[in-house]
Amino acid sequence: MSTRSSPVAIQSAVPVPTPLKTSTAVSSSSSDHTSSSDSLNQIQKSGKDKRHSSVVDVDRSASPGRLKTMRNSYRVLKNLTQKQMDDFMNSYVIYGLDWENEAQMIATLGPDYPTAVHDCLVSYYSVLNHLCALGEVEKMYIPPVMNTHAGILDNQLLYEEYVAREIELKAGDHVLDLGCGRGRVAAHMSKYTGAHVTGLNLDADQLASARTFSAKRKLPLEFIQQDFNVLPLKLESESFDAFYQIQALSLCKDLPATFREIYRVLKPGAKLSLLDWVSLPAYDSGNSEHAELMRRIKPLIGAVGTPTVDKFHAALEDAGFHVLRSDNASIDGLQAPLIERADGYFRRLQSLILALVKLRVLPAHFKTLMLRLTQDGQAFVQADRMRLITTSYHILAEKPRL
């Protein structure tokens, strides 16, 4: 299949089976005869009474208790050492770089720049995941807008349940989650379908949280510490029935090599679901306004690379996958309503924290953390509304059957 310069939807002849559990709010018209390429269209074209309904029916049984999570993260952040703070702030240097400009990478980070990037990411995520847990983005991603009346958490659940159906997860299946974070998405996937999820992540702190969370709920989850930029993956060939990742490949150094590895570990006929960051055709690197927005957004969303849709298609097809669907998963192609919601929440939280720092109730480094976290949310909103970039680009692909 040739690569395409614009979003496409490709008809799949493979029907999506009914999952172990169903969610009527996602698509009450989904059935055993609904193709994977049509299912998101049905969600988004099923009528305002469904996609705009204020009643959201999702499985929240694997969702974390927000107050407990916030308390735990607050304690970690309060006790950060000066070295941890310095390492976190210094880690942002990598977001001014791009994997494709190796000369700049070497000039900034030295000849062993992949190791330097890895070390920066460890420092970055050791703090950032706790900052995100203070709000609605413990899963560390802004989801596609699946329901205009739902908040961030429910839109995350709606999207995750959609993914479970499109990759045809069922009880007993083994699925790979790349960049699994704290394992909250994996927990929901497993609870929703009965599948066994294996999560990969480079941050030991997030993995410890994931293991504790899944053990308490007795879910069939496994978590492996590995930087997916260090290949090969520590996984057996043809050992997984499906694959998904959510906004992790913005950190990927070599998309073709990574997709070849994923192809290796998937069984024939397995489906792959991606949700990630891309620059869109309207983005012009020679436009000073566009370039400035990009400079501000990359540190906010944690992106070293700047992939395009064409690059994803080419890398997938080079690895041997067939692209079944490729489009923006958000209603009307805009995430801005949810980005604004997250930005507004953290700005309100920032005002409270700055007041508490001033009163010396909180240590001074909380001010530094919050100012960094809320620095460029409006740039993200602006670029999304200008349709220059998105973090809700969705691709479904399949490893051919034998």
Automatic annotation (TrEMBL):
The keyword Cytoplasm does not apply. GO terms for cellular component: endoplasmic reticulum. Residues 1-65 are annotated as: Disordered. The keyword Transferase applies. Residues 176-272 form the Methyltransferase type domain. Residues 22-39 have a biased composition (Low complexity). One of its GO terms (molecular function) is sterol 24-C-methyltransferase activity. Keywords: Transferase. Pfam families: Methyltransf_11 (PF08241). GO terms for biological process: ergosterol biosynthetic process. This is S-adenosyl-methionine-sterol-C-methyltransferase. It comes from Lentinula aciculospora.
